[in-house]
Amino acid sequence: MEFFDEFPTMGRSDLRDLKKAIDSGFRNFSRNYGEGLEDFFDPLLQFLVWFERLLVNTPWPIVLAAIAGLVWFGARSVTMVIATIVCFMVIGYLDMWEDTMATLAIVSVATVICIAIGLPVGILMARSNKFQAAITPILDVMQTIPSFVYLIPVVMLLGIGKVPGLIAVCIYALPPMARLTNLGIRLVDKEVLEAATAFGADYKQKLFGVQIPLALPTIFAGVNQTIMMALSMVVIASLIGVAGLGVPVLRAVSNQYLALGLMNGLAIVALAIIFDRVSQRFGRRMQSYREEGAGH
Predict the structure, then answer these.
(1) Residue 161 in 3-state DSSP?
(2) What angle do CA 151, 272, 41 make, to 5 degrees?
(3) How far apart are CA 19 and CA 11, in angstroms?
(4) 165: how many CB neighbours lie within 10 A of its CB?
(5) Which DSSP helix (H) or strand (E) runs through 242?
């Protein structure tokens, strides 16, 4: 009956040896390749530092005008532009401007990287069932593993700083982009593809002329989710040296400063809402242009 009372486990010495082997193996890997990886990511670090300094050091009226212009380009809504300006004015008035610019920099760079990687991965997943079967478990792990767990190897390899934080954000935020790109392309009506094939379209023409345009609403949903998940990682990324709104939130948690945490938390919420509404409206607008062109 002892077998049923206590679950059979590996011996303590064997388990200890296994953990030591994993730890020592990764330490050796980080010693041998850590410096090379740092050199590889150095251009990304330089760009991130330059972009953050650009946002922080540029006079605020110019930054605000640029943000308002981007919101107008994406949403084509006067109400949205006014709401965005008011939000950023309040953020600046409450002395959160620099932290907000730092957060804006890392979220923008992370979103671009996630789109650049997630879009082709999603296309390949839609093209090949075998590739989809191989990649899906990796995306599952990236999306569900606790973020503190993958902070450990990232910090061991690259240390504390902006690049490890950016990588951590990208690991967490990339899966929705790949998944929804794959889903959007797979949901394209087969009859439409058959019609394109009948007109002599090859794979590339069908992909860029039919599948991606029809999948745009779903793809933009992926962009939207990527941005939201990148923003949700801001506080955790601050643990490994990423400047931004997450740093005062972390300080507020450590010292029980309600006002500080609430104000910076609401600033993150404001950024999330702005990104969300603008990306949604931009996606709908591109879809409406496609439908109008088809109607003509």
Answers:
(1) coil
(2) 35
(3) 12
(4) 29
(5) none
pTM of the model: 0.85
Residue that has been written with the tokens 């620099």 in this structure: 98
Tokens linked to 147: 């973020």
Angle at 178 between CA 284 and CA 159, to 5 degrees: 120
Identify whether the C-beta of residue 76 lies closer than 8 Å to the C-beta of residue 285. Answer: yes
In the chain, DSSP assigns E strands to none
Please name the residue that has the structure tokens 């910076």.
264
Q: What is the pLDDT of residues 184-234, one digit of tens each?
A: 988 888 888 888 888 887 878 888 888 888 888 888 888 888 988 888 887
Say which residues have a Cβ less than 8 Å from residue 167's Cβ, sequence separation at least 6. Answer: 41, 154, 158
CA dist 233 and 112 (Å) reads 16
- The total number of residues shown for the chain amounts to 296
What letter represents residue 66's amino acid?
A
Within 10 Å of residue 136's Cβ, how many Cβ atoms? 15
- CA distance linking residue 137 with residue 157, whole number of Å: 24
DSSP state letter for 199: T
Strands (E), 22-126: none
CB 76 within 8 A of CB 281: yes
How far apart (Å, rounded) are the C-alpha atoms in residues 259 and 265?
A: 10
Cα torsion 94, 95, 96, 101: sign: positive
Count CB neighbours of 49 within 10 A. 14
Q: How far is CA 147 from CA 80, 170, 171, 180, in A?
A: 33, 11, 9, 22
Could you tell me if residue 95 is left (phi over 0), alpha (psi between -120 and 50 degrees) or otherwise beta? left
Closest CA to 286 of 123, 67, 108, 73: 73
Closest CA to 279 of 233, 202, 237, 227: 227
Q: What is the pLDDT of residues 226-261, one digit of tens each?
A: 988 888 887 788 888 788 888 888 888 888 888 888
